[in-house]
Design a protein that fits this description.
By secondary structure, the chain is mainly beta. It is about 5% helix and about 50% strand. The protein has 2 domains: about 80 residues, Beta Barrel (Elongation Factor Tu (Ef-tu), domain 3), CATH 2.40.30.180; about 110 residues, Elongation Factor Tu (Ef-tu), domain 3. The chain starts with 8 loop residues before the first strand and ends with a strand.
Length: about 220
């Protein structure tokens, strides 16, 4: 059924555990990472993946299952295509989100990007121009916050992430339990926007590093 944004909660990853290496990544409907150590990892944990596969690199995912000190399975991450995910070249690391900080007093969330990058071309014998897709633009998100959020832990987390410019993950949970994971970097604009008849607000931009990952629950 259709949903409205009322009841949505938003969190940002403020602390990550140390990165753990994986020596292989499978071509499967749900990617399996071969790991000598799964220390600290459990079913349902959220991780950031760094990989030699460009389509997986810096992607955020949820762990579906863990085989102790052997492997983890990334829920919903389809790597079956050997064209997009060449066998043997997907090795890398995972970082578990160890602390999520809720961002409160959010009044609106907007996004832009995600649209196709097009290349125009025309043959000399034709009077018609053609277009073809050549990948996609990254997706950016903007959070609008009540300016009084300055006293909250979520605001502090956004400010700290802006200062250091390290990669993080935004987790958006709807009232029905649907989840979006958005990997990216944060830029908090502390200049207060003032409009007559409206509350004072500030904005935080999240510049996406890879595609958004969605889960139904």
């Amino acid at each position: 059924m259709a949903q409205v944004p009322t009841g949505t909660t938003i969190f940002v990853a403020s602390v990550f555990a140390s990165a753990l290496s994986f020596s292989a990544a499978s071509n499967a409907t749900e990617c399996v990472l071969t790991m000598a150590s799964t220390t600290g990892l459990a079913n349902g944990d959220f991780v950031e993946v760094s990989s030699g596969w460009g389509r997986l690199n810096l992607r955020a995912a949820r762990i579906k299952s863990v085989v102790l000190n052997t492997s983890i399975t990334l829920e919903g991450i389809d790597t079956t295509s050997t064209n997009f995910f060449p066998p043997g070249s997907g090795v890398g690391t995972v970082r578990k989100v160890s602390t999520w900080q809720e961002i409160t007093l959010v009044t609106a969330v907007s996004s832009n990007g995600g649209d196709p990058i097009t290349v125009d071309y025309k043959y000399l014998a034709s009077d018609v121009r053609y277009k073809m897709n050549d990948g996609f633009n990254g997706t950016d998100y903007t959070l609008t916050l009540d300016a009084d959020a300055i006293s909250t832990a979520g605001y502090t987390a956004l400010k700290n992430l802006t200062d250091v410019q390290t990669n993080t993950i935004l987790r958006v949970v709807t009232r029905s339990g649907q989840i979006q994971l958005i990997p990216g970097t944060v830029a908090l604009n502390e200049s207060v926007q003032m409009n007559d008849g409206q509350i004072n607000t500030v904005t935080a931009a999240i510049t996406g590093n890879n595609r958004t990952t969605r889960y139904a629950s």
